[in-house]
Amino acid sequence: MIAVELHQLLRSRRTWVTILMIDSLPTLVAVLLGVTEVGPRPGTGPAFLSAVLTDGTLFPLAAIAIVLPLFMPIAVSIVAGESIAGEAQQGTLRYLLVRPVARTRLLVAKLVSVMVFVLLTLAVVAATAYVTGTLLLGDAPVAATTTVSGTTLTQQELILRTLLALAYAMLSMFGVASIALCLSTFVDAPLGAALGTLAVLVASTLLLTLDAADSIAPYLLTRYWLAFVDLFRDPILWRDVVRGALLQVVYVAVFLGIAWANFATKDVKD
Amino acid sequence: MTPMGRWSIVVAGIAALLAAPFALRALPVDDAGTDAAALLTQVQEAEDHPYSGYVESQGTLQLPVTDGFTDVGALLGEETRMRVWWRGEDRWRVDKLLTTGEVDLVHDDRGTTRWRYAQDDVQRSPDPDIRLPRTADLLPPSVARMLLDDVDAEDVERIEARRVAGIDAPGLRLSPASEQSSIEHVDLWADPDSGVPLRVAVVGKGARTVAFTSEFREFSAATPSAGSVAFRAPPGAEVSFDDVLDIADAANQYAPLVPPASLAGLAKGPQADGAVGVYGAGMTRLLAVPLRDQDAGPLREQLARTPGVREVRRGTVVALGPLGVMLTGGEGDGGWLLAGTVTGDTLVTAARDVTTGTLVRR
C-alpha cells in the first residue's frame, strides 16, 4: 500500500512542479543576493540570510527559513488535503476500498506519502541552496563556520547540525500534514481540506503576535517552527527544539486519531 | 471495534493530552515556611552566588527613546530571551537570543565584550559606573540586587511559594518605604537552597498588572565552567574597541557639569562622580543625564507624542507604568533627562533642583 502511494507520488508531474516552485524562491533570493550583494539589515529578514554573504555554506539553512513559514505549509496542506478528499472527489475512494485494504493502513500510507513529499522537497531545497550558496554567495573559509554564539563549527559539525535542522523542519510539517489529512477525511473537496488547514496556520501565526494569547502560545502549531536556529547556538539550546518536536507529536496524535476514528467509521459513497 | 468505541478512545486520548499540562501545574507547591526576614537575608547573602540558566523577561514600558539610547526601549518594553552563565561579578556571559542570531555580552576583569552575530562584529569596552541598562541587568538576580539595596526586614512580607524553573520557590513581597517611589511592590521568588532570585515582578503604584517580570525558565545553582564564559573573536569578525559605551557614559565623561548632591531630597550615589547623577537607592531611584540639544531635540519630539505626557514649567514629564521620565528645557535647548522609579511630583522637584543647582566645571 505504501509502495503504491509512493509510486504515485513520484510519478506525478504535479509533485515535481510543486517542488520546483518551492525551490525557485530561495534560488531567486540567492541570485539576487549574489548579484546585488545587498543583504537584509542586521536583525531583519529570515534567519542566517545576513550571514550568507560571507559564508555561502549557510544558505541551505537560510533557504529552510525562507520556505518553512509559508511555502512549505501551503504545499503540505494541498498535498495532504487531497490525499483522501481527492480520491473521493475523483470517485476512486470507493473502488480503492473495495479491494481488501484496511482503512487505517490506507490512512498511514497517505501520511507516509505526504511526509516523503516533505522530505523530497527539503532535500531538493537544501541541495539547490548549497550549490547556489557556494557558487553565488560568500566563500568564507570552509574549515570553520561561525555559530550564532560566535564560536566556530567544523565542516562535519556544520553538516550534522544542518541535517538535524532538516529533520526538525520535516517534523514541523508533520503537524500540518496530519491536520490536512484529518480534514481530508471529513470533506469531499480537497480544496476545503487545504483551506481549513491554512486557516489553522493563519490563526496560529496571528495569535502568536498577540500578547493576550501568551498563555496558549506554547500550544500553537507554528510556535516552535523556527527553533531550528537554536541548533546553531553554542552550546545547542535544546529547550524549544524539544518542545517543538513534542508539540508536533501531540498534533499528529490528536489529528491522526480523529482522522482514524472518522475514516474507519465513515460511510464511503464516492 | 464499534464507531462508538473508536471515538471514545480518541476523545479520551485527547482529553488526557490536553489535561496533562494543567495537571502538572496543579501539583501543590512546597513551601519550606522560611520567614520573611530569614528569606531576605538568604537572598541578600546570595548576591555573589554563581548560577546559569535560561531567562525570559517581559517589559510593558513603552519608552519614548531615540536611536541614541541603544536598545533600552526594547529591553523594558518587549520580551527578551537570554542564556546566562554567571561565575561571579567579574566573570559572566549573557546571550540575548534572537530569531536571527544573538547579541552576547561576555564580561571579564578587562571589561565587556559584545558579540553581534547579524553584524558579525565584536566590540570591547570598559565597564563604566554610569551606563544605560543592558541585557545583563534584566536577569532576576541583577534586578533583585538593584531593588534590594536599601530594603530591610520591615519592608518585606512572605507571599505564596511558586514553581519557577521546576523549583518550588518561596516568595517575598518588597514594599518601598519611601513615598517618593512609583513602585507599589516587587514580588520575588528565590531558590530555597542557594537563595538566588528566580523570578522578579514589579508592579507600579495604582496598577493592577505587572509592569516588568524576569524569570528563570531553566536554572542551575552550580558554578558554570570557565569555558562557558570565555570568548574569542571568530575569524573574519570586525573587532573594535570603544571607550565610550553609550549616551549616558559619554555625558558622564565629557559634559562639563556637576549635578547637585541631592535632587528632591534623594542623595547622590557614590558611583556618580561625573556629569551624570544617580540618586536614591533600591526602589526609589533616579538618574539625571545632561543631554546636548541634538540629543534632547529628538527625544523631546518623541516625548510629545507619548500618551499621558504633561508640559510643566521646567519641561515635559510622563509616567510609563512605574517609570517616570522628564526632560527639562524647551525646543532648541539641551536639557536634563530625569528618569527613574519615582513619582511625577518627585520628578518635577528634581527638575527644579537640577536646573538651579548644577555647577559648570571649568
TrEMBL record, chain A:
UniProt keyword annotation of rRNA-binding present: no
Pfam family, one: ABC2_membrane_4
Residue stretches spanning the membrane: 16-38, 58-85, 106-131, 158-183, 190-210, 244-263
Keywords: Membrane, Transmembrane, Transmembrane helix
Top-rank taxon: Bacteria
Protein name (Swiss-Prot/TrEMBL): Efflux ABC transporter, permease protein
Organism name: uncultured Nocardioides sp
Higher taxonomy: Bacteria, Bacillati, Actinomycetota, Actinomycetes, Propionibacteriales
